[in-house]
């Protein structure tokens, strides 16, 4: 009697991030996934550029979770704001957020958003990085200290690199956004994420 072979079980998908923004973005793909904290030191290395920092941390996060779940397909991601070559991290406090926004007024800021996909059992590890160019409104255009304070009182974006949530009220601080991957500024470039997931063998709708 012929016994049909069972299809191989689908690999679990894990998002190696505790970011609520990345989780919400990944949910758009309508595929089941788990969330695990990567627990990676995010300190930059001496002389490390913002783009290299984002790529290194995205891969490190994916690898850290993949070591604990070797059969799974793991996504890691990181974003670094780049002001004239200087890395700007998450402000964490009101004072630092205000200072960041004051410095970025009238400036082009580059947001490097990297995504890595790792599966140890399949010997797969790839990383891609999306760059988003953002121009902040100038002080002469109404982004004065009072406007910054009003924004932070309404939307304290202390957990966002660059101190502004483009998916929320922070869009009012911006003059222009340039990107080939629209969700990259929020924290996860979904076009690149889909490409890497397909390369790792995951079927998407």
From TrEMBL:
Active site: 78
InterPro entries in the record: ITPase-like_fam, Maf-like
Keywords (A to Z) from UniProt: Cytoplasm, Hydrolase, Nucleotide metabolism
Stored Gene3D superfamilies: 3.90.950.10
Catalytic reactions on record: N(7)-methyl-GTP + H2O = N(7)-methyl-GMP + diphosphate + H(+)
Phylogenetic lineage: Bacteria, Pseudomonadati, Pseudomonadota, Betaproteobacteria, Burkholderiales
PANTHER family for the chain: 7-METHYL-GTP PYROPHOSPHATASE, BIFUNCTIONAL DTTP/UTP PYROPHOSPHATASE/METHYLTRANSFERASE PROTEIN-RELATED
Residue(s) at site: Important for substrate specificity: 21, 79, 167
Family to which the UniProt record says this protein belongs: Belongs to the Maf family. YceF subfamily.
Pfam families: Maf (PF02545)
Function: Nucleoside triphosphate pyrophosphatase that hydrolyzes 7-methyl-GTP (m(7)GTP). May have a dual role in cell division arrest and in preventing the incorporation of modified nucleotides into cellular nucleic acids.
Keyword match Cytoplasm: yes
Record GO biological process: nucleotide metabolic process
EC number: 3.6.1.-
Example of a GO cellular component annotation carried by this entry: cytoplasm
Lineage: superkingdom: Bacteria
GO function terms (MF aspect): nucleoside triphosphate diphosphatase activity
UniProt subcellular location: Cytoplasm
Cofactor names: a divalent metal cation
Name of this protein: 7-methyl-GTP pyrophosphatase
CDD domains, per database record: Maf
């Amino acid at each position: 009697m012929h016994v049909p072979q069972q299809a191989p079980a689908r690999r679990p998908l894990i998002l190696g991030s505790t970011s609520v923004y990345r989780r919400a973005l990944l949910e758009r793909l309508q595929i089941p996934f788990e969330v695990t904290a990567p627990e990676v030191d995010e300190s930059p290395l001496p002389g490390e550029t913002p783009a290299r920092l984002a790529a290194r941390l995205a891969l490190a996060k994916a690898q850290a979770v993949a070591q604990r779940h070797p059969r799974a397909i793991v996504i890691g991601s990181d974003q670094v704001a780049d002001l004239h070559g200087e890395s700007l991290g998450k402000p964490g406090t009101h004072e630092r957020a205000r200072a960041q926004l004051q410095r970025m007024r009238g400036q082009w800021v580059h947001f490097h958003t990297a995504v890595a996909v790792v599966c140890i059992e399949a010997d797969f590890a790839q990383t891609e990085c999306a760059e988003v160019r953002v121009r902040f409104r100038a002080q002469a255009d109404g982004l004065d200290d009072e406007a910054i304070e009003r924004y932070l009182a309404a939307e304290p974006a202390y957990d966002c690199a660059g101190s502004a949530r483009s998916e929320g009220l922070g869009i009012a601080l911006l003059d222009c956004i340039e990107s080939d991957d629209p969700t990259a500024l929020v924290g996860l470039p979904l076009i690149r994420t889909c490409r890497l997931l397909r390369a790792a063998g995951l079927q998407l709708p």
